[in-house]
Amino acid sequence: MGIDIAASFAFSVERLSDVLLQFEAAAIPEQRILDSNCTMSKAEHIARVAAQDAIGERIWLHVDGRFEVSYTAQVEVDRIVADVATLARLEPHELPAEAVQYLLDSRYCPADRFQPFVEAEFGGSHGGARVAAIRDWIAGNFTYEQVSTTHTTALDSFVERRGICRDYAHVLVTLARASAIPARYVSCYAPGVDPPDFHAVAEVFLADPSVPGGGAWQIVDATGMADPAETVKIGVGRDAADVSFMTVFGEARFEEKEVCVRRA
Amino acid sequence: MGIDIAASFAFSVERLSDVLLQFEAAAIPEQRILDSNCTMSKAEHIARVAAQDAIGERIWLHVDGRFEVSYTAQVEVDRIVADVATLARLEPHELPAEAVQYLLDSRYCPADRFQPFVEAEFGGSHGGARVAAIRDWIAGNFTYEQVSTTHTTALDSFVERRGICRDYAHVLVTLARASAIPARYVSCYAPGVDPPDFHAVAEVFLADPSVPGGGAWQIVDATGMADPAETVKIGVGRDAADVSFMTVFGEARFEEKEVCVRRA
Amino acid sequence: MGIDIAASFAFSVERLSDVLLQFEAAAIPEQRILDSNCTMSKAEHIARVAAQDAIGERIWLHVDGRFEVSYTAQVEVDRIVADVATLARLEPHELPAEAVQYLLDSRYCPADRFQPFVEAEFGGSHGGARVAAIRDWIAGNFTYEQVSTTHTTALDSFVERRGICRDYAHVLVTLARASAIPARYVSCYAPGVDPPDFHAVAEVFLADPSVPGGGAWQIVDATGMADPAETVKIGVGRDAADVSFMTVFGEARFEEKEVCVRRA
Amino acid sequence: MGIDIAASFAFSVERLSDVLLQFEAAAIPEQRILDSNCTMSKAEHIARVAAQDAIGERIWLHVDGRFEVSYTAQVEVDRIVADVATLARLEPHELPAEAVQYLLDSRYCPADRFQPFVEAEFGGSHGGARVAAIRDWIAGNFTYEQVSTTHTTALDSFVERRGICRDYAHVLVTLARASAIPARYVSCYAPGVDPPDFHAVAEVFLADPSVPGGGAWQIVDATGMADPAETVKIGVGRDAADVSFMTVFGEARFEEKEVCVRRA
């Protein structure tokens, strides 16, 4: 599936500050970058480093004043998409070392507090069937509404039963981890996101039916807006704290943002 | 420096549960395991995986009923310990990829909220001097007291100005990250910890004077109880959520614990 | 209904401190104090003031060292108990001035955050029927378990789905207020509380069928342990912060407590 | 001192909702309402009830669609203003019954958590001198900046060291209560507030030098913007939850607000 991406944004800082950006489609086997172009304002320093789990890159800026980013890309997504509900669970002791961190609590996902809830609400299902049940429960009980701030955790969203993609993903990640299923947060581009913007979904680690004893990450979007087969990953992390498209060490004034994602 | 460790603990679970343990001295260049012995109760499954940053191992149990662990080790610590206050900062854009996650917010360390405080309180110092100032500020303003629970964050401890080693380490990690200095949480054994128990300290990533452009992790203990030259690392993580000596997926009743650490 | 109460407790403070106690059966029309006896250690100052809504009394102590309280009372409860589920709601604009504060958020009851939840879960019922639905939902979804601390709010208990009488009452108060029904917290004695201890229930303000346009407070106990006809009120408040049996300005070590409540 | 007030605001609700307003200058001995005029849109029901501590009135609306309020008043303030720093403390056991609730924790003011901080930071001062020290500490350490939401507590503001009048007042109230000094939240009009808006200050209950054994409330504004002699009280409460100028049971869209306060 070919996806065309155009994204631009601008911000200003009042004094020389460190800013971390992550907004480009990741070059990984499941999605090929056919063409891409990125124009950025001048900065005192710009450095690139591999991002979390070696998916995508983070860009460090040391910058003063107004900074503009303009990015376009053509991406071919070639992801094997399974029906999550049919996938078996890997027992925790079968997990590879690198999946274990995605069982543990993170800034926005205090999963340990939700063990009684997931047992009570989803106790009858396991593995992928539980993930599907969690996804459907969120979809059925939440209202898509912009009420969250950078302080809003999955616990807040769970109580208030509303939020945006970031919050839907945090709640899904949290309830999956409380079920002892590794789950991570994925920032992405996807057609169909309304209003058009950067998007976020969850990924869960379940048994891979094609590899005995093996596991694989599967995209799950509780908002229902993104099709996993058309989703272009930017990066992954424990939650939004790890993979924000912009993290500022200091104060920045966000000035504009425009994102357009289309099927090619 | 030779260190002798003896640790034992026991817990019970009421139904078959997954439990993650991490309590053994890590086999890493800066500390040699001369001898070690670990006796554990039988479990349905026991599996070992590499722990975070490949420092130490995590042990998965699939277990029912009472479980006992008895561990002894002789460790030779051979760590180069610098005077933290004299070390320079690495600019964020100079950081290696793997250090970046330790700048970001985690479960117990909501660092972004402390940027105004660190600027106001420690604005005049940078790099290692700032870390030393933060350590001294905690030591001077906190009371060592057991008031924390598994929900207690660095924000809670900062407000209440008291806690145990876990909380001292969380506050130091948080204020270092708010200063754009990578900081991680280290579970460890150390002689001099009173009362004797598992211990926790912080590590910060600062310029390595012996490697131009390079950086190195330095142990900092705001409680003042552990000497970095005698500290035996068990594991590292973003905070206590990553490197608890016992993480239970389900309910466990902790039954006993005894830790003895001595200079050999 | 005659109720016999015997309660005793002791605590120690390390330096001269102010302590506020509230543990005696309130002398109010719905419960007559037939006999009571209270013995307390000597204190530098002891003063009594009327408690919240003029229900019961608060006792100020200015005290050092160990302090013991021993209290017995015989109380005749003569409360008109309605079937809450049958009572109509008073519209907010019909509420008397003194009930309005019990619609508003308090320390442990952040009701405004639960408006979407109560609409989604209980939207089909109103007034007393909604209160009964909330009570039954808590009873059906919560586990009675001592996990709370003085920091635990209704939001925490709602997420973790467990707690003790204090927490059950907080959640009921919170969900009632989120439904625009005034609700307050009642500390009390009641036979049948297991393990025997001070108890806490909620009260909601609903239409009084015997007084056109009037309202009355009705006891609701989501734990199901206390019968409203046998409940002896100590005091009322916005939540547990207002009507703790002991509030210390300083540090106290609680040393013993024994409560025995029986039908006469 | 004569003060002229003009305030107008408008909001919309999408379905019939209960709304509580409190925005008029309170008719109390210390401030005489010379003239006032209030124009409001039609509502299905409008009812007035006395507000907390009988200071001012709350207005209940049962309303649908857009609602507009336009209010003007001329007020003569005749308040005895003492130099807070010179006033003695009343010991808790000397407090009148109605002041006790203002020592206790409320929604936005979790005072019990700040006892170690106030002892460490302000332990050398007492009574009014401590209140003045707290006020000066806030003024010296906080930045006036709009970062708070309806969820922001004094604990959040204390950590982030910034906020608006609401947050300055919450922190002062919290630190006074942690010092065992009764403190309440006052919504008010005052000339000099910049940008012009509804304002909030704290009041503390200290010894009244003109009445042996008596106490009196004294206005303290940590923002420094309002002169107590020119402050027109709207209402008082435990914190902002009790005395918001608009509390909605449901969803409202705030549409405009204009406040102008001048010396006559």
Task: Give descriptors for this structure.
homotetramer, 264 residues, alpha+beta, 6-stranded antiparallel β-sheet, 4-stranded antiparallel β-sheet, 4 helices
Give the largest interface pair and sizes.
A-B, 41 and 41 residues
Which band does the percent of strand residues of chain A land in?
A: 35-45%
N-to-C order of helices and strands of chain A:
EEEEHHEHEHEEEEEE
Mean pLDDT of chain A: 96
pLDDT under 50 segments of chain A (min length 5)? Answer: none
Largest sheet of chain A, in brief, is: 6 strands, antiparallel
Oligomeric description of these chains: homotetramer
Query: Using DSSP, what is the number of strands of chain A?
Result: 12
Separation of the first and last Cα atoms of chain A: 8 Å
Give the proportion of residues in helices of chain A: 10-25%
Structural class of chain A: alpha+beta
Q: What is the molecular shape of chain A?
A: globular
**CA-based gyration radius of chain A:** 18 Å
Number of helices of chain A: 4
Walk me through the structure.
With 264 residues, the first copy, chain A, is an alpha+beta fold. Chain A has helices spanning 115-122, 127-141, 154-160, 165-178; strands at residues 2-21, 31-40, 45-50, 57-77, 143-144, 162-163, 183-189, 199-207, 215-220, 232-237, 246-249, 252-263. In chain A, the strands form three sheets. In chain A, strands 1, 2, 3, 4, 11 and 12 form a six-stranded antiparallel beta sheet that branches. In chain A, strands 9-8-7-10 form a four-stranded antiparallel beta sheet, with helices on one face. In chain A, α3 links the parallel β5 and β6. The longest helix of chain A is centred in the middle third of the chain and has 15 residues, at 127-141. Chain A is globular, with a radius of gyration of 18 Å. The mean pLDDT of chain A is 96. The interface between A and B is large, with 41 and 41 residues.
